[in-house]
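User: I'm curious whether this sequence folds into something compact or stays loose and floppy. Could you predict its structure so I can see for myself?
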Amino acid sequence: MARGNKKPEYMKSVVGPALGLLALLGIASYALLGPTGIIAWTDYRSALSARKVELAKLQKERDALRNRQILLDRDNVDPDLAGELMRKELNVVAPDEVVVPLN
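Assistant: Here's the prediction. I'll summarize afterward.
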């Protein structure tokens, strides 16, 4: 009957480390497979590169708009741009002119 008394003590000594090991495995699997885990880094890298391309495109568009704003300054309007806008928006052309849209 001496063995019967050791069984609960053996179970107590095994259960604690087993639960700790299970907790560590859970944390490790979450660190690997979770939404911000190591495997998700590849998705983040590809998304980051796509966003960098989009950012460069938007910066180029912003610079073009800023240049157009500078050319349309009230005090110093670029005459070529003013003529282009007048012809495009108001459809003002001379009878002998031919309009060739580039866009």
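Summary: The mean pLDDT is 84. Residues 87 and 93 are 6 Å apart (CA to CA).
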